[in-house]
Please model this.
Amino acid sequence: MTDSRHALIIANDRYADQGLKQLRAPAQDAGALERVLHDPQIGDFEVEVVHNASADLMRRRIQGFFTDRRRADTLLLHFSCHGLKSESGELYFAASDTEPSLLAATAVPSQFVRGCMSATRAGRSVLFLDCCYGGAFSRGSGSVRASGEVNVLESFAKDEPDSGRGWAVITASDSMEYSFEGDELAENSAPHPSLFTHAVVEGLETGEADLDADGHVSLDELYEYVFRHVREQNPHQTPKKAAELQGELHLAHSRRGGIKIVALPSPPALRTAMSSDEFLTRRGAVTELCARLQRPELPVAEGARQHLAEVAQNEVQPLADQAAAALREIRLAPSPDHLDFGRVPKGSHPPRRTVTLHGPPLARHCLAQPKQSWLRVDPTRSGLEVHVDTARTGHLSGDLALKGVADESVIHVEAEVTPAEDAPEPRGPDAANRSRPPKPPAGGERPTVVFAPPRVPPPPKEPPRTGEDREPTGRTTSSRRAPALAGAALALAVTALALLFMTLQRAVMAVTARVDAGPTGQVEDSVRE
Model:
């Protein structure tokens, strides 16, 4: 969605006045509607919820919602509360502090809402009314009439917005009778308020409201789906619609739409070859079609697929078998087709599993449609990445539907979300950071994956020294060896000096002997000495 889209959900189920029965569904319905409207894969709205607000706060939020808008904006206002009618026939929306006898002062008149819709500069405004008209107030509630009809659409069709700006109103029902049982309105006098909103949520969430399977849910399609769904559940309740719109208003993306590729027809020469009377010529043409089916250009591959489908139906058996074998190669083949996430702590970072899609590019080109709201899927280059929402505890079991150009497949997903205290406590100095779940991304942004650098292991500790290497005094081996080495060096020095002294002594003795011998002595003996 390229335009700016905003939604305001007003849900009141608790009332100070004892005559207004407490409703059970609005809070639950508001949460479900907020989820699908805010989901970037479905509604992609910026959503604000006002729950059990006073009449003054409701008026402030409604006027602020329609103020300071642009032509490109699309606005959606949803009421889930009691609807009351005054003596003059004016429709009012009950607030938490509404007093049925003082509607003008303590409730929000439909005329006020209509005026805000007429004055806004937003290009398109849509109003959903899921109101229990007449509420459930006591018979003695002063000025509130005990019977009659509330013509809701007439209340909003009196003043149309300025030319060029579209509007639409869809109601859970239009004209509703008041009926009493004893001193109060009967429990079944008005449709259950959740029936309408439940149909809206289901139609958007499952994509079933995309009646033409074009990938978008228009306002007309949603109304038709809700009308049929509500009538099947309660034949006495008839949703109504009034609108002044130019063109289609797409309220949401659809998870139902199939893959649509504009095929590029086969070249004329190839079609001519397929029309030849020569068998070998036609076989060569079929072989060429099989090659085109493997091409990465999807329009080319889709054109070949459609041509091969004709061949498989109309050609002689050998060529038909060749075409059928080629078509089987583009069937969806996810691996694995069953994912079990096991036990996952509540609120933890959603675990992810990878699914690989095999086959040529045309076979891998498919639309993944989660059947349950807790399933999430993102495309990857080789297939899909699947993860689950861990916001709620319990056993999760659902399917991820894959729709290709000519085939469908299902991936079954299971998980067991356990309370956070069941998860093992992280240890270490960064335990607080690792145990805290990451904050979800704002709006429709994808979460950023941060890769932490690997930790450098500390150097290994030296092994403890044995008793042989340790002295009682605590001195190390190196300090103990130093004196010993010094002593050994000193002994070697003394020995060397002794040998030098002995050598000199023997030399003196040899010289003396040589002198005493005179001419008769042997020089060699003296030198040897």
Q: What stands out?
A: The first strand starts at residue 5 and ends at 11. Residues 477-517 form the longest helix (41 residues). The radius of gyration is 44 Å. The chain has a mean pLDDT of 77.
